[in-house]
Design a protein that fits this description.
single chain, alpha/beta, Rossmann fold, 43% helix, binds FE2/S2 (inorganic) cluster
């Protein structure tokens, strides 16, 4: 019997526009395409509703990686919501770099509702990337609200 620790399973939050990524996720489901259970979808009326605070809070609340998935550029139902989201994601990436979490843990993707296979591919690739990066550094330092650092949990047993 092996005592090796369980492999790291990242928690991923995906803010998905209802018109594209969310529809693509549905399509992926009906096509029986597999994508990792690590990805928790949050439906948005448009990615333009995503603000920097919400993105950072996702990390504070336990995410190891976060992505925003919106309509293809030029196809946003609210005209420029996805362009606004892109700028916010870029800004939040800089903040994540500055505070030591790492901007590479946050990305923006664009797709259409008919891109079920692409949805599944993004979910797989992003999960794999975050798995390689390891846990959100906030967890390691024990500054993560509601969670203790692993050493302390072990020590307290
Ligand atoms: Fe899809 Fe705006 S409606 S990103």
């Amino acid at each position: 019997m092996s005592n090796s620790p369980a492999p790291f399973e990242p928690k991923i939050v995906a803010f998905c526009c209802y018109y594209c990524a969310y529809a693509a996720a549905d399509l992926a489901g009906s096509m029986r395409l597999q994508y990792p259970a690590n990805v928790r979808l949050i439906e948005m009326p448009c990615t333009g509703k995503t603000d920097v605070r919400v993105l950072l809070e996702a990390f504070e609340n336990g995410a190891d990686g976060v992505y925003v998935a919106g309509c293809l550029e030029g196809d946003c139902h609210f005209l420029k919501g996805n362009i606004r989201a892109k700028k916010r994601v870029q800004y939040a990436k800089k903040l994540l770099d500055e505070i030591g979490i790492g901007g590479e843990r946050l990305e923006m993707f664009n797709l259409s509702g008919s891109m079920g296979p692409r949805f599944a591919e993004i979910a797989q690739e992003f999960t794999e990337k975050i798995r390689k990066l390891g846990p959100n550094p906030l967890k390691k330092t024990g500054t993560f609200p509601g969670e203790m650092p692993e050493e302390r949990v072990a020590h307290d047993k």
